[in-house]
């Protein structure tokens, strides 16, 4: 279990992480999702004791990382796959970690096999590794001590499609055995497939969190019409929140925070013909994410104005 409680990190006047609270639970994959610069890495650095928080706390099973006697046995961490010693071979890096953690020597070869590095790749210096190979080595290091908690920052970076699939299965399997898995990404689809729970962060603040099923269920309705101004007015008059749907593409789509029946009735009363009317499902999450990632969309959104 990872507990992040009212975590704030400021750099001068800038709040990189602003009052972030969430829990990542055992047996579940928690996706930590946010656009570039949202504060994911900073939060994770605090969790693993690399950055002191300005206020608030992050603990794993009730303890701060710094208080863990043999942290590698309890928390597997992958923050920056490129930060490995370039002059050492992959096998050397794993061997040093295996000795530090007091693990049997056989774990090194087991992990090399598990992350599908060939023996000759394992004996190559890390400076000659591709990004995907570094990522595999980083995952091997994180899993070496069979920790119950995994904290992985953008672990799919640099992996090819087969590698992404492999990693997804690996994380799923790990969580299914009871581990707590927290992984960050700036790519919604990457995380949507594997995560059970989602924590969405933007500009340092949590903007949404819950189970994936809950967040998808609250997505509302996607509606398309040639008369967007007319429908917008009718929805506003009815007090129903709505926003242009960037996720659906085109300028004729709105996402409405009401179910399809309500939206259909409002359109009928206003005598507005619809081109499409359906539950938004994943589009709602994508919408929220696009709003976070594009400042101009945030400025033009009308969501909530009518609420
Ligand atoms: N040491 C620092 N000094 C000043 N600002 C910092 C420092 N570390 C991070 N920041 C700022 O904090 C904000 C959050 O950065 P962070 O790396 O946590 O984002 P992120 O969500 O991990 O983004 P990405 O998806 O691009 O990795 C950014 O604006 C970044 O420039």
TrEMBL record:
Q: Which GO terms describe its molecular function?
A: ATP binding; ATP hydrolysis activity
What are the UniProt keywords, alphabetically?
ATP-binding, Nucleotide-binding, Transport
The record ties this protein, via PROSITE patterns, to: ABC_TRANSPORTER_1 (PS00211), ABC_TRANSPORTER_2 (PS50893)
Question: Which residue intervals define the domain ABC transporter in the entry?
Answer: 2-228
Give the SMART domains listed for this entry.
AAA
Q: Which Gene3D superfamilies match?
A: P-loop containing nucleotide triphosphate hydrolases (3.40.50.300)
- Pfam families the UniProt entry points to: ABC_tran
Which PANTHER family does the UniProt record give? ABC TRANSPORTER, ATP-BINDING PROTEIN (PTHR43335)
Similarity comment: family membership:
Belongs to the ABC transporter superfamily.
Q: What is this protein called?
A: ATP-binding cassette domain-containing protein
- The species this protein belongs to is Aeromicrobium endophyticum
């Amino acid at each position: 279990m990872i507990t992040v409680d009212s975590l704030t990190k400021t750099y001068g006047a800038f709040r990189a992480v602003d009052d972030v609270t969430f829990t990542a639970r055992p047996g579940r994959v928690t996706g930590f999702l946010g656009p570039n610069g949202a504060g994911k890495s900073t939060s994770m650095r605090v969790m693993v004791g690399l950055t002191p928080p300005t206020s608030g706390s992050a603990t794993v099973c009730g303890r701060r990382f710094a208080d863990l006697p043999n942290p590698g046995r309890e928390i597997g961490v992958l923050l920056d796959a490129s930060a490995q010693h370039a002059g050492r071979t992959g096998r050397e890096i794993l061997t040093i970690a295996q000795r530090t953690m007091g693990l049997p020597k056989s774990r090194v070869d087991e992990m090399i096999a598990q992350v599908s590095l060939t023996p000759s790749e394992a004996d190559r210096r890390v400076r000659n590794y591709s990004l995907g190979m570094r990522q595999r080595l980083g995952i091997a290091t994180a899993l070496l001590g069979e920790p119950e908690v995994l904290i992985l920052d953008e672990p799919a970076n640099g992996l090819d499609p087969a590698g992404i699939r492999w990693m997804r299965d690996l994380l799923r399997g790990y969580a299914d055995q009871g581990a707590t898995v927290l992984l960050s990404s700036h790519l919604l689809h990457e995380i949507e497939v594997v995560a059970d729970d989602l924590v969405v962060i933007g500009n340092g603040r949590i903007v949404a969190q819950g189970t994936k099923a809950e967040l998808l269920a609250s997505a509302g309705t996607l509606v398309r019409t040639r008369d967007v101004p007319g429908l917008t007015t009718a929805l506003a008059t009815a007090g129903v929140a709505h926003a242009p749907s960037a996720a659906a593409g085109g300028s004729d789509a709105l996402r409405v925070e009401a179910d399809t029946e309500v939206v259909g009735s409002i359109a009928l009363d206003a005598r507005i013909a619809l081109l499409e009317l359906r539950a938004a499902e994943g589009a709602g999450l994508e919408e929220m994410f696009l709003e976070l990632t594009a400042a101009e969309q945030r400025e033009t959104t009308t969501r909530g104005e009518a609420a």
